[in-house]
Amino acid sequence: MKIGIVGLPNVGKSTLFNSITKAGAECANYPFCTIEPNVGVVAVPDERLDKLAEMYHPQKVTHAIVEFVDIAGLVKGASKGEGLGNKFLSHIRETDAIAQVVRCFEDSNITHVDGNIDPIRDIETINFELIFADIETVDKRLDKARKMLKADKKYQLEIDVLERIKQNLENGKPARGLEYSDEEMPIVKDMFLLSAKPIIYIANISEDQLTNWEQDENVQKVKEYAQKENSDIVPLCVKIEEEISTLDDNDKKEMLEALGLDESGLDKLIKKSYDLLGLMSFLTAGEPEVRAWTIKKGTKAPEAAGKIHTDIQRGFIKAEVVSYDDLMKEGSMNMAREKGLVRSEGKEYIMKDGDIVLFKFNV
């Protein structure tokens, strides 16, 4: 699963990417420093794995992962090929979700591409370019569907949903804001619309804003904008996060305490990004390995078993399941079993986040 980090030039995208992945993406104070997207795979912070490791003393601990892609800065007119617009749009089309970095801090040493700080203007510059590109995609698809309608009436459904999307886009609203029926969803997915992708806004603030960001006018504007489209926001100081990312665990904890933070902004972002993609984790635990396995919310037990090995899915018999909270409360699997907290679930069981599972199978 890929999340594309996007934003106008010089808002802190590549610095954020460096902080997340420690991959060393080039940074510079001029537009289009990032031309080819940098890609980094990061672990999803999960305190449950640490507790399970204390219980089982495994040889290996494996976290769930999310892939972040640092994409070139976009400018007005990208949908018409301005700047690196064509590259930007093609790279973002390949991602599953968007993390848009929005500059909410003042700094005379860092040039703003539009000359001054205005987070809503910046957000809409990007969102409108995605919408403009989607209108072009929808128009082409509509022309084709109308021609095909003469030969096959099934294309009427496609025409209806396309016209509804087009009207929404022309009103300046993203495609993700509409609700789609089970019949319409395959049509929408097949178009890979840019504005249909789920989005999270990253309000890049200064160190001085860290403790009072809730009162900051610019951050509040971003928060209100995000709420209107049922999106989320993560305020963080990219500069500080870059410093924190270079520290070991003890020094990191001390710095966070000194800043009055319970966890880093990056950890919050990674967790929220995982959730944004509609993902969750089930867990396996034993002496060889404690591991988080990534599945879509709503996944049934056999499909979850297939994440471990296709043979387990093919020969699925049942899943022995205990919730993480119940296991921690009882202190061991044997005690949880004695209390009747280890359940036997069949093929229709829908997995829950934090389920600790042992699959039984026969092939």
Which SSEs are present, and which pair or pack?
Elements: E1 2-6, H1 13-21, E2 38-43, H2 47-56, E3 60-62, E4 65-70, H3 85-93, E5 97-103, H4 119-149, H5 155-170, H6 185-191, E6 199-204, H7 217-228, E7 232-236, H8 238-244, H9 249-259, H10 265-276, E8 279-285, E9 289-296, H11 301-308, H12 310-314, E10 316-323, H13 324-330, H14 333-338, E11 343-345, E12 355-361
Parallel strand pairs: 1-4, 1-5, 3-9, 5-6, 6-7
Antiparallel strand pairs: 2-4, 8-9, 10-11, 10-12
Short note summarizing the structure:
By secondary structure, this protein is of the alpha/beta class. The chain has 14 helices and 12 strands.
Account of the protein in words:
This protein is of the alpha/beta class and 363 residues long. Helices cover 41% and strands 20% of the residues. The protein contains 14 helices and 12 strands. The protein has helices at 13-21, 47-56, 85-93, 119-149, 155-170, 185-191, 217-228, 238-244, 249-259, 265-276, 301-308, 310-314, 324-330, 333-338, and strands spanning 2-6, 38-43, 60-62, 65-70, 97-103, 199-204, 232-236, 279-285, 289-296, 316-323, 343-345, 355-361. The strands form 3 sheets. A 6-stranded mixed β-sheet has the order 2-4-1-5-6-7, with helices on both faces. A hairpin with a 3-residue loop joins β8 (279-285) and β9. It is flat and about 60 Å long. The two termini are 30 Å apart.
> What is the share of helical residues?
40-55%
The count of β-strands is 12
**Rg over C-alpha atoms, rounded to the nearest angstrom:** 23 Å
Biggest sheet strand order reads: 2-4-1-5-6-7
Question: How would you characterize the largest beta sheet?
Answer: 6 strands, mixed
Question: Helix count, per DSSP?
Answer: 14
Q: Which secondary-structure class do the elements indicate?
A: alpha/beta
**% residues in beta strands:** 15-25%
